C-alpha cells in the first residue's frame, strides 16, 4: 500500500509539469499587459516598460516558465499583480469556503442519488424508475449557472425566502448546495442504478433470495456492498471537481471560494494567481482520486491484495 501511494504521488510530478506548462502558455499568449493593468491606462510608457523589466515580463517564454517552475518547486508562487498579497496565502484563505460548499453539495448528491438509484434498480421499468431517469437526464443536461439563476429567481426574488448570494449563515448555503448537489445527484443516480442492476442479476443474489433472505438484507448487505466501487468512483470525482471550485456556481452566488478567485484572476490577467490556483486545484483533485483508490481496498478486499 505504501509503495502504491508513493508511486501515485511521484506521478503527480509530470502531471503538474504538464498542467503548469499549458496554463503558463495560455496566459502568456492571452492579450493584455499585466504591467499596464497595474499602473493604469494613463501610465507613461517608460514606467510600464520599467515595471515589465522588473517583473521579468520581457524575458523569453522558456526563461519565464523555468523561473516559475523553480519557484513553485520551492513553494514560492509569487505575489498577486492586483492585491500584492502572497497568492498561496490568498488561495488558502478562500479554500475553506470552497470546502464547505463542496461537502454540502456532495452530501445533497449522495442523500438524493444513492437511494433513488437503488429504488430505480429494484423497480426497473416502473413509473418511479421512468420518472427518476427522466429527472436524472434533465439534471445532467441542465447547466449549473442556469439552474442557480432559476433558484435565485424562485426563492430569492419571488418568494423572498433565501438570500441570492453571499457567505456566512446557513441560509447562504442552501441555494448553492442545491445547485451543485442536484446536478451531481443526477450522475450518481444513473451510476447507482446501472451498477445495482448489474449486481442484482448475479447468481449469488439469486442464491440469497432462494435461501429466504429478506429482500432488504439482499439489497443493502449483498447487492449494495458489491456495487459500491463505481459509485465511490463517481462520488469521488464529483467531490474532487467541487473542491476544485465550482467556478460558475461560485460566481453566480458571489461565493468567496477559489473558483470565483480564479475567474477574477483570469479577468484581470493576474498570472501568478491563475497559475497557483490551477496547480492547487490539480493537486487537490489528484489527492482526492488517490483517497478514492485507497478507499476501494476497504470496500473490496480483493483490491487490497493487489497492493501487496
Automatic annotation (TrEMBL):
Membrane-crossing residue ranges in chain numbering: 9-29, 97-119, 131-153, 173-192, 227-253, 273-299
Subunit structure: The complex is composed of two ATP-binding proteins (NikD and NikE), two transmembrane proteins (NikB and NikC) and a solute-binding protein (NikA).
Molecular-function annotations in GO: nickel cation transmembrane transporter activity
Chain ranges of the ABC transmembrane type-1 domain: 95-296
Stated name of the protein: Nickel import system permease protein NikB
Database matches in PROSITE patterns: ABC_TM1 (PS50928)
InterPro entries given in the database record: BPD_transp_1_N (IPR045621), MetI-like (IPR000515), MetI-like_sf (IPR035906), Opp2B (IPR050045)
Pfam families in alphabetical order: BPD_transp_1 (PF00528), BPD_transp_1_N (PF19300)
NCBIfam families: Opp2B (NF045470)
Main location: membrane
The family this protein is said to belong to: Belongs to the binding-protein-dependent transport system permease family. OppBC subfamily.
Localization, UniProt: Cell membrane
GO cellular component terms listed in the entry, alphabetical order: plasma membrane
Membrane topology: Multi-pass membrane protein
Keywords recorded for this protein, A-Z: Cell membrane, Ion transport, Membrane, Nickel, Nickel transport, Transmembrane, Transmembrane helix, Transport
Amino acid at each position: 500500500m505504501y509503495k502504491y501511494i508513493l508511486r501515485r504521488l511521484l506521478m503527480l510530478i509530470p502531471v503538474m509539469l504538464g498542467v503548469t506548462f499549458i496554463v503558463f502558455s495560455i496566459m502568456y499568449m492571452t492579450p493584455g499587459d499585466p504591467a499596464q493593468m497595474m499602473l493604469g491606462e494613463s501610465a507613461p510608457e517608460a514606467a510600464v516598460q520599467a515595471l515589465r523589466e522588473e517583473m521579468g515580463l520581457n524575458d523569453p517564454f522558456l526563461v519565464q516558465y523555468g523561473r516559475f517552475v523553480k519557484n513553485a518547486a520551492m513553494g514560492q508562487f509569487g505575489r498577486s499583480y492586483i492585491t500584492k498579497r502572497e497568492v498561496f496565502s490568498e488561495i488558502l484563505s478562500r479554500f475553506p469556503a470552497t470546502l464547505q460548499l463542496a461537502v454540502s453539495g456532495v452530501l445533497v448528491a449522495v442523500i438524493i442519488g444513492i437511494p433513488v438509484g437503488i429504488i430505480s434498480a429494484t423497480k426497473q421499468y416502473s413509473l418511479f424508475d421512468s420518472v427518476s431517469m427522466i429527472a436524472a437526464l434533465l439534471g445532467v443536461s441542465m447547466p449549473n449557472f442556469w439552474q442557480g439563476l432559476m433558484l435565485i429567481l424562485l426563492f430569492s426574488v419571488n418568494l423572498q425566502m433565501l438570500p441570492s448570494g453571499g457567505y456566512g449563515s446557513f441560509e447562504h448555503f442552501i441555494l448553492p448546495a442545491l445547485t451543485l448537489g442536484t446536478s451531481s445527484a443526477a450522475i450518481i443516480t444513473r451510476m447507482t442504478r446501472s451498477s445495482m442492476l448489474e449486481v442484482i442479476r448475479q447468481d449469488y443474489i439469486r442464491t440469497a433470495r432462494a435461501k429466504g433472505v429478506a429482500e432488504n438484507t439482499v439489497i443493502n448487505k449483498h447487492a449494495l456492498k458489491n456495487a459500491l466501487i463505481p459509485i465511490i468512483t463517481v462520488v469521488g470525482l464529483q467531490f474532487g471537481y467541487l473542491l476544485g471550485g465550482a467556478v460558475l456556481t461560485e460566481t453566480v452566488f458571489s461565493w468567496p471560494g477559489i473558483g470565483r478567485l480564479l475567474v477574477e484572476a483570469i479577468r484581470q490577467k493576474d498570472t501568478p494567481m491563475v497559475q497557483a490556483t490551477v496547480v492547487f486545484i490539480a493537486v487537490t483533485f489528484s489527492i482526492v482520486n488517490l483517497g478514492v483508490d485507497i478507499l476501494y481496498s476497504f470496500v473490496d478486499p480483493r483490491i487490497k491484495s493487489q497492493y501487496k
